[in-house]
Predict the 3D structure of the following.
Amino acid sequence: MNLSESESLRAMLAGEQDLVVVNSCAVTSEAVRQTRQAIRRARLARPLARLLVTGCAAEVERGALAAMPEVDGLIANTAKLDPRAWNVAPAALAASARHTRAFIVVQNGCDHACTFCVIPQGRGPSRSVPIEGVLGDIARHLDCGTREVVLTGVDLTSWGHDLPGAPRLGTLVQAILSRFPSLPRLRLSSVDGVEIDPLLFDLIASEARLMPHLHLSLQHGNDLILKRMKRRHLRRDALELVHALKARRPDLAIGADLIAGFPTEDEAAHQDNVSIIAELAIVHGHIFPYSPRPGTPAARMPQVQVPEIKARAAQLREAVAAQRSHWLSSLMGKRLSVLAERDGTGHAPNFARVALPPGTKAGDLVTITPTRIAEGLLA
Ligand code: SF4
């Protein structure tokens, strides 16, 4: 989300002189720490520039950021893509589609209330972009050479509930695939497994142009912790979903977000978190050491000690690394279609990163048969 929104901001503000914008994140306390650091660095590098801060931290930590001497002003997160908030002409909001892979934001905000999460405070309630708006955005990117579209949202699978007729995400995915038969690749960013509708399930299981890569907003492997998080799934829901999808599409690569050291997590609960990594064969893992966020219910629950949280996060990362290394080895000798990016690497359909031969042009789809793994990349 932030990557895509930062691209839009860059395009919208391209004509502005001496302006630095920090598009901040508040998802963890570490993200806020990095935001402050980015602000200080930006000020050192550009002492005379106007420095404005937007993003979730500009909502959640408004007072603290506004008080930093380096900051000249804050822009509300919900207004940041509105040219009026920056005093620039609307025409300046042209498509900045220069990437082979385009992140298309189809939904923003969230109506849920997971007990650890500060995002609804930072981004407000769920809003969906209507189908025609999404199709128009994709068409602009395709005209500029995009070969892969990644549908993105804060709570992507809730897309549509606020639109007339309350369409589900499967309807949007199908509309994109039929409107753009020449689009080689469509990918979903992160999904909430229990919100996958039957059409979307079918498309993930069988549609070749929808990439075999499912990133689950899983958060934990223990039912009691999931309930305390106020998540809407249990461990067995995730297992059943992945097994049912893999039965139809065995090459599906699974990713997941997991939180280490959620309040009240004991050793047995942590072990459930570790073991779900192997049970689901999670090969793309985002591990977040829990940190209390202001105003959230979890911040008032009995906390796990920080060194223990760090140790548990390290164990989760090790477990993902083991799955990943096993998975990468299993791809040796397989023909993979890789979309070349600008930095000499590219991604296979299953999101494995592949080092490409020198001279491969960004945007080309090339077939690679990997023979080795070098620094985490297939080569
Ligand atoms: S679904 Fe839960 S974790 Fe995700 S943004 Fe909404 S409140 Fe936060």
Summary: The first strand starts at residue 19 and ends at 24. The two ends are 29 Å apart (CA to CA). The CA atoms of residues 304 and 371 lie 43 Å apart. The chain has three domains: 2-91, 94-330, 336-378.
